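ok here's Endosome-associated-trafficking regulator 1:
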Amino acid sequence: LKEENASLRSKINKLQIFSETQADKMRKLERKLEENKIKEQKEAQDLEAMVQHVEQNLQLMTKRAVKAENSATKLKKENALLQIQLKNYKAENEALRSGQAASLAVVKRNADVALQNLLTVITNSRSSIKQLVSGAESLQLVADLLKSIDRISEMSEDGQ
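and the structure:
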């Protein structure tokens, strides 16, 4: 009976040690789980902040692109008007050459002014078109960024 009692005590001690080891492992796993939860929450917050930042940038770039497009349209209209005006001045210049030499200097000045206006409009149009192209490239970059974010979120959902 003493031997059996000692054997049982030995088994109880072994089971207590095993139980304590398992409890330590369980506490470590619980700590790790809590750390992972905190890490995932932080990553989710960071991702959300990044998405909001990208959305703000997208809105800003969209506004810029619309503004550049409107400006380009306005400059194209102005350019067309100036080209018509230039044609009229050229026609007037031709008429003056054929019969009214005294007014030639006035016509020439008008043509020069129209030409200068036309060159200014063309220069401004080019600048606006460059801005529009730059805005479009920025929008493409943001679209690619958003695609990347979707892939990241899909990958993190698969990992859960």
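+1. Residues 2-99 form the longest helix (98 residues).
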